[in-house]
Write a structure and sequence with these properties.
mainly alpha; 11 helices; elongated
Length: about 240
């Protein structure tokens, strides 16, 4: 299986289960759910990949887009350019908005020839950038699912998040991020402790001190006989209330 690419501009009707529903009833569903809610244009990436999304849907999910399309710093009527974002990763956001789940990513095996961990981390960071808390929690669920698959398979292809992933996360998240906590916890509880004594590891940790600073507390908790934080996975979720 190839690494997933961004979906086509997702139609609202994809939210409706395929149970023989007629075209007329699908059109009725569209009218009832969205009414005359307009679509906005999102130009993503250097090549400006275009996505069309119902304004109400994306504004309800993201305070950033709510401000962009309805707030005081409205840039353009119905259109915004997101040049710095990866259209492949953004495509997963669009899919989640309409389907309520990360359908493409949830079906991908970890050993398919691309960095599955990094894809999830990039999606979490992008969801964080736009304040989409429910999506961040959905990605966290897939991170745990990937962890579970790795434990079940226990093969060389199911590698833990690599150092490049940790560097990326700590360069693109703020202190207190649940994603940072996930990585620090993962390494303390699931990586051979001998790895931390390697000279190459010590040198690398010096290049990312924020990660190294989070490890002692996790080590102390483990040394005192506490149960793995992974046993309470809900503690890694973002609160959806302000």
């Amino acid at each position: 299986m190839e690494a997933p690419t961004e979906p086509s501009n997702v139609n609202v009707n994809s939210r409706v289960p395929d149970t023989g529903t007629t075209t007329s009833s699908l059109m009725q569903y569209d009218n009832v759910y969205f009414g005359d809610n307009p679509k906005v244009q999102l130009k993503v990436g250097a090549k400006e990949k275009i996505f069309y999304v119902h304004q109400g849907l994306i504004c309800e999910s993201s305070p950033f887009f709510r401000a962009a399309f309805t707030g005081g710093f409205k840039e353009n009527s119905g259109s915004i350019t997101l040049e710095e974002d990866d259209p492949v990763i953004f495509g997963h956001i669009v899919q989640w908005l309409y389907r309520g789940k990360l359908e493409t990513l949830s079906k991908v095996e970890v050993d398919t020839g691309f960095d599955y961990w990094m894809t999830l981390f990039q999606l979490y960071v992008l969801a964080d950038k736009y304040g989409i808390r429910l999506l961040k929690n959905a990605v966290m669920g897939l991170l745990f699912q990937t962890h579970d698959r790795r434990k079940e398979k226990n093969t060389e292809t199911y590698k833990p998040p690599q150092q490049s992933c940790i560097t990326y996360v700590y360069e693109n998240t703020a202190p207190g991020s649940q994603l940072r906590r996930f990585l620090a916890t993962y390494y303390v509880w699931h990586i051979d402790l001998g790895w931390f004594n390697l000279s190459s590891t010590i040198e690398w940790l010096e290049t990312i001190p924020a990660f190294g600073a989070e490890l002692p507390q996790a080590f102390a908790s483990r040394a005192m006989g506490a149960s793995s934080p992974f046993n309470d996975r809900s503690s890694f979720n973002e609160s959806i209330r302000d």
